[in-house]
Amino acid sequence: MNSAYDKALHRYAVFTTACTFVLLNAGALVTSNEAGLSIPDWPLAYGTFLPPFVGGIRYEYTHRVIATCVGLLTIGLAVWLWRAEKRSWMRWLGVAALGGVIAQGILGGLTVRMYQPPPVSAAHATLGQLFFSTVAAIAVFTGAWWNSGFAEIDDPQSPRVRTLTVCTVAAVFLQLVLGAAFRHKVFGIIPHLIGAMIVTGFVFVTAGALKRRLANVPALRSCARYLQILIGVQLLLGAGAYWSRQYAARFPQPIPVMVALTVAHTVTGALVLATTLVTALVAHRMIGQERTIADSAPVSEQAA
């Protein structure tokens, strides 16, 4: 076991990740219930710290409380990493997470103060997904598995799994940007639908490559299975969310089925991004870098 492993730190990072996932649910509830401006001021709420807990206020205020808790947890995580981590890049990753949660808070405040301008609201939603993936990555990096030693695996086929996973992460992230832009009325649904088809193709190609080439590697085989399950669930939720929006258009207020499906679709998107990122990290940890002909030649031939 590598000396970088700290069981208490890892558990704290996992807890912070779980709380961030709860925060994503709370934020999606605010948007789906159209409660974003139920509290018209920020950082206070109707000039106080405890507004009346009625109507859309309960969604927005709960979201702010959970966001504050996650912010405090992130401060603790960044400080702990800076004091305990021997890996300098991990210390700076903690600083990046802290910067992300601060920026997220500022964007949230601007969303209220500027009366929900679509680009700012979409940026707020997108950064929330990025922050979740960042703390999830920290949880992976501080885990026992990551800090254990094992031999590298060869992947001579093309395109390499390492390349496929990175491309899949990029495609999923761009799709989440398009989804946030659609939810916040930056533009229509067509770009999001096109993005969904592209992401589905990337996920199944990547998962298929993992299963065919690295079927004897449990970690990567599990990643492939989770990717396929999540993308299937996400497609079903997306169809359900779109149908429910069309059905709910005849009602004066958001209806429960529309809220539930939209929230589930939004947070599952965050899980897809985090899972593709973890898959990319695991692939880069286990699969060796591409070697040139000179690198793979016997030592005697290189010497000659």
Explain the overall architecture.
This protein has helices spanning 7-32, 57-84, 88-113, 118-141, 161-183, 190-213, 218-248, 256-286, 293-296, 299-303. With 304 residues, it is mainly α. The chain folds into 2 domains: 1-149, Four Helix Bundle (Hemerythrin (Met), subunit A), CATH 1.20.120; 150-289, Four Helix Bundle (Hemerythrin (Met), subunit A), CATH 1.20.120. Helix 1 (7-32) packs antiparallel against helix 2. It starts with 6 loop residues before the first helix and ends with a helix.
Fold blueprint:
Layout: H1 7-32, H2 57-84, H3 88-113, H4 118-141, H5 161-183, H6 190-213, H7 218-248, H8 256-286, H9 293-296, H10 299-303
Count the DSSP helices: 10
Low-pLDDT ranges: 292-304
Mean pLDDT over all positions: 90
Quick one: how many beta strands? 0
Named CATH architecture of the largest domain: Up-down Bundle
Helix content: over 70%
Radius of gyration: 22 Å
Residue fraction in strands: under 5%
- Domain count: the total is 2
Which outline best applies? globular
Name the helix and strand elements from N-terminus to C-terminus, one letter apiece. Answer: HHHHHHHHHH
CATH topology of the largest domain: Four Helix Bundle (Hemerythrin (Met), subunit A)
Biggest sheet features: none
Q: By helix and strand content, what is the structural category? A: mainly alpha
End-to-end distance: 39 Å
At the first level of CATH, what is the class of the largest domain? Mainly Alpha
